[in-house]
Amino acid sequence: MIFIKRSDEPEVLKTIGQAEQLALCAQFEQGNPNFKFKSSIYGHDSVKTALRTMQHGKCCFCEAEITHISFGDVEHYRPKGGHKQNESDKLTKPGYYWLAYTWGNLLFCCTLCNQQFKKNLFPLKNPASRARSHHDDVAAEEPLLINPSVLNPQDYIGFRDEIPYPIAGHVYGKSTIEILGLDRENLNEFRRSKLGLIKKLLDFITAAEKRADDIELQKLAEEAKQNLKQHTLQTAEFSAMVSSFVFRHVDGVDL
Questions:
Q1: Spatial separation of the C-alpha atoms in residues 182 and 193, rounded to whole Å
Q2: CA angle, corner 83, sides to 78 and 114, nearest 5?
Q3: In which band, very low, low, confident or very high, does the pLDDT at 214 lie, cut at 50, 70 and 90?
Q4: Whole-structure pTM value
Q5: What does the alpha-carbon distance between residue 200 and residue 30 come to, in Å, rounded to a whole number?
Q6: What's the chain's Rg over C-alpha atoms?
Q7: Residue 197 — left, alpha, or beta (φ > 0 → left; ψ -120 to 50 → alpha)?
Q8: Looking at the structure, do residues 168 and 209 belong to the same domain, yes or no?
Q9: Are residues 117 and 214 in the same domain?
Q10: Collapsing DSSP states into helix, strand and coil, what is residue 107?
Q11: How far apart are CA 40 and CA 91, in angstroms?
């Protein structure tokens, strides 16, 4: 996971979305919690495009490049329909209905992270602080799942090679890894494959720097360095893992 800097809110959320949000709140006041949500609003092309661009085409959670394998989901960080503190709990309704069309609650997510792992899970450090309606303040909550557009995940989740771990055992990192299955083996395998390439680039650069008199080799080494830098950029797939690995193994290598 990497920090996601939010772009400007799409117009459809500021207009149609806000009107629909007010209608949902009015429905709650009337004692009718059977909400129907309009994916045509929160999943509007302009919203999805803004999220995809904002996140460089990557899943907000696992950092896989979504567009290579699927269309991706518009994810509600705070679940709109209902929520669970634990996987084994019964779904509690209503969910965060008043945030269904709120820009700050929307992220772009791969289908696997969204539908197989996170689903309606939204655990809090203190469940008693949970906002139950639009009258409550979500700022009083302390979510255990990292919102990558609010907190920098790299302050809480590190990598030992391709395997994620909670930095200093922090509960945010631990819970986020568990909830999202960020250490699932098929994801580890994808990261392992990327890491294999990174290790080869580093090995080549290190070997080339011992032969400073070989001009052609130095040119190739410079290209390898530029290639390596590209893999550490936020636009690159699994950049958090790559950055973690590279900056632990660059001693003596001039990047």
A1: 16
A2: 60
A3: confident
A4: 0.92
A5: 63
A6: 21
A7: alpha
A8: no
A9: no
A10: strand
A11: 24
